[in-house]
Amino acid sequence: MTRVGVLRGLAWAMGYACVAIGLFHVLLGNAAIPGAGSAGPTVDSFGRFMGAIFAGYGLAWLWAVRQSPVPAAAVRVLTAVFLLGGAARLLSLAVEGRPQWFQLLLAAVELGLSPLLWWLADSEEKTAVTACGPSAGKATDSA
Predict the structure, then answer these.
(1) How confident is the model at residue 141 (pLDDT cuts 50, 70, 90)?
(2) How far apart are CA 74 and CA 65, in angstroms?
(3) Cα separation of 59 and 53, whole Å?
(4) How much is the pLDDT for 61?
(5) The whole model's pTM is what?
(6) C-alpha dihedral over 27, 29, 34, 37, to 10 degrees?
(7) What's the half-sphere exposure (Cβ side, CA atoms, 13 Å) at 48?
(8) In whole angstroms, how far apart are CA 103 and each of 34, 42, 54, 69, 71?
(9) Dist. CA 75–CA 58, nearest whole Å
């Protein structure tokens, strides 16, 4: 599979997964968070709100992957947000201690996948420039 294929595949997967996970949190509230079932209405409200934000994050991935070429700047901004989420989990681990095992798995995915997404971000834009040549889109004088 080419770099462009991997970028597009991961972007589609990120988009759909984030929308699904976000909506899962909106619908289930505390029940969607391992160990938070009895956390109360404040945590439930926060979790549902963050679920809506996460669904919007997924929609941003789906918007980006529908562009041709996939915009590297958008992929890098979305990847930076993903990496920040992983870093926030590490901060929580340091401050509050070890969370439920699935949260550790999510942190590993966020921290491990971010460098790959960053590296792939401009692969389709580079392919488009190479295919069209460096002078693509420039006016030429022909008399």
Answers:
(1) very low
(2) 9
(3) 10
(4) 98
(5) 0.86
(6) -130
(7) 12
(8) 9, 20, 16, 34, 30
(9) 12
